[in-house]
Amino acid sequence: MGQKAWILRMHILDKLAQRIEKANSLLCIGLDSRLDKIPQSFYSDPHPQFAFNRWIIEQTHTYTLAYKPNLAFYESVSGYQALEKTLAYLHEYHPDIVTIADAKRADIGSTNEGYVHSIFDELGFDAITLNPYLGYTALLPFLERKEKGCIILCRTSNVGADEFQNLIVEDRPLWQYVAERVSKHWNQYHNCMLVVGATQPSVLKQVRHIVGDMPILVPGIGAQGGDLAAVLLNGLDSQKRGIIINASRSIIFSENPAHQAQVLQQQINAYR
Amino acid sequence: MGQKAWILRMHILDKLAQRIEKANSLLCIGLDSRLDKIPQSFYSDPHPQFAFNRWIIEQTHTYTLAYKPNLAFYESVSGYQALEKTLAYLHEYHPDIVTIADAKRADIGSTNEGYVHSIFDELGFDAITLNPYLGYTALLPFLERKEKGCIILCRTSNVGADEFQNLIVEDRPLWQYVAERVSKHWNQYHNCMLVVGATQPSVLKQVRHIVGDMPILVPGIGAQGGDLAAVLLNGLDSQKRGIIINASRSIIFSENPAHQAQVLQQQINAYR
Asked: Which of A40, A82, A232, B10 could disulfide-link to A49, CB 3.0 to 4.6 Å?
C-alpha cells in the first residue's frame, strides 16, 4: 500500500515526465491480452491472463512509458482477478511506469462514481480513457480527481470514425470542437489528455496546435497501420514529447515482444 | 444452459413484446446496487450485491418488463460474481424478463468483440447500451448479433448533455442526426433502440417521429426528476408501447420496493 499511496499522490503529468526521462521512451504497450489469443503455454497457470501480462511486462518494461490494458478483455471474474494482479504487480515492481485503463467510459455523473472507485481507487490506475458524448458535467467525478489522467476520445483510429467525429459544427469538425472544449474548459487541473488515432496525422497536427503541450495518446501504430514518422512529425510538443504512442497486438502477440518493443522505442526516438 | 440457449435464440423485439403483454408493464428497474448504498442487513451474505438484487427481483418481478444493472457498480471481482449470479438467477426463475446491460460501451471493432463475448455470451444479457461516438462500423460486433438489443445513446438525461448532443450538424441537433443514422442505416436487423432521457419530453416526441415504432429506453424518471405524463404522451408508439421506462434508485433504495414498482407500473398504464 505504501507504493500505491505514493502513486496516487503524484500528478499524472509529473509521473509521465519522470518516466519519459528515465526510460527515454514514449512507448505505451496495450495489454489487450484476450484469453483466446495468448499462447497456450500460459493456460496451465491458475491466472493465464496475469501470467501472460507479467511475462510481457518483464520482457518490455525497460522500453516502456506506460501499460494500457483494454478493459474489454477483462470483463469477467477471472479477468478482474488478472487485472488486479497485473496492477498490483506493476505497483510493486515498476511503480514509476504509467498505467492507463483503456475503458472509454462515460455515464451520468453519480454513476461515474462507480467507475472512479473501481478504476482509480481499487485497481489504482493512473489514468483512464473517456468518451465525450455525455459532456463535461457528467465526467466531473473523473475530472475532479486532480492527480489522475483523463484521456478524452477526440478522433479515433477506427474505420468509420468520421461518421460523427467529422461532422461540421460551428464551422469545424466535431473532433476539433471536442479538442477545443477539453483544452479550454475541461482542463482546470491540467489532468486532461486526448486520443487521436495514428491513422490521422493531419488531425494530429491540428489538435497539437489547439492544445499546446497537452499529452496526446496515439493508438493505431502497428496492427492498424498508422505511419510512425508522420505521427512524430505532427504530434510532438514543444519539448519533443507530449505523445504517448500505443502498440498492442503488434508487440504482445509477436514472436519476440522484447525485441519488438525495443525496435519501436528506438524508431520513435530516432524520429524525435 | 437450456433456458439460456432459449433466451439467446429469441429476437429482442419478440421478447420485449411477449413480456409487455404478460406483465402488462413498460417498467424497467435499474439494478444500480452500489455496495455502499445497499442495506447493511445484506452485508452478512457472502455475495451482498447478489443477495440485494435477488431480494429486489423477488419484490418487484411481477411489475417488471426489464432489469438493467449498470455495470459501473459491478467492476470488481466480487461485482462480476454478483452480476453472474444475478443473471443466472433471472435466467433460471424469470427467463421471460428482459435483461439490459447498462454499459454505454464503444471501442474499435475488434476490441468490441471482448465486450460482446462477456456481456452477451458469458453473462447472457439480452441487450446493451452503446455510445455512438465511434460510429456504426466500430459497433458492428454488437449490431451483427441479430437477436440482441443494441440501445444507442441519443439524448441523455444528465445535466450538461447539451454540450455536444445539441450541437447543430446539417441543420439539426446532433442527437437528431444520431436518431436518423440509427433508424435509417444501423437497424438492418431490427435490433436497434435509442436512449432518450425523461428530462427531454420534446426531444422524445421528435425522436418518436423519426424512428417509427423503434423502442426507446427512457431513464431519468424518479431520482432525476423526469415528468412521467409527458414521457408517455410523447414517447408511446402506434401500439401504445415502444418505451421502456427506467427507474433505479427511487425503487431499489425505497422503504418498500414492491410498492414503489407497483405504483409506477400502474401510473404508467394509467397514462397509456
From this structure: A82
Which residues from chain B sit within 8 angstroms of residue A32, using beta carbons?
Answer: 111
CATH superfamily of A2-271: Aldolase class I (3.20.20.70)
> Strands A127-130 and B149-155: what pairing?
unpaired
| ipTM, 2 dp | 0.96
CB B126 within 8 Å of CB B151: no
CA B141 to chain centre: 19
Q: Which of B34, B72, B79 sits opposite A107 (nearest CB)?
A: B72
**Residue pLDDT, tens place only, A118-176:** 999 999 999 999 999 999 999 999 999 999 999 999 999 999 999 999 999 999 999 99
Domain residue extents for chain A = 2-271
CB contact under 8 A, B136 and A104: no
How far apart CA B222 and CA A37 sit, in angstroms, is: 45
Q: A18 Cβ partners below 8 Å, 6+ apart?
A: A96
Among candidates B269, B265, B201, which has minimal Cα distance to B235? B201
pLDDT in tens, A169-219: 999 999 999 999 999 999 999 999 999 999 889 999 999 999 999 999 999
- Which residue type sits at B93? Y
Q: How far is residue A28 from each of residues A131, A192, B114, measured CA to CA in Å? A: 20, 17, 21
Q: A150 is written with which cell numbers? A: 483523463
Residue range B156-201, pLDDT digits in tens = 999 999 999 999 999 999 999 999 999 999 999 999 999 999 988 9
**pTM score, whole prediction:** 0.96
Alpha-carbon distance B124 to B145, whole Å? 12
Distance of CA A172 to the CA centre of its chain: 26
Instruction: Look at strands A172-173 and A168-169 and give their pairing.
Output: antiparallel
Contacts of B167 in chain A (CB under 8 A): 169-170, 174, 177
Place of cell 488515432: A197
From B81, B131, B170, residue closest to A131, measured CB to CB: B131
Query: What are the percentages of helix, strand and coil residues in chain B, rounded to 5?
Result: 50, 15, 35
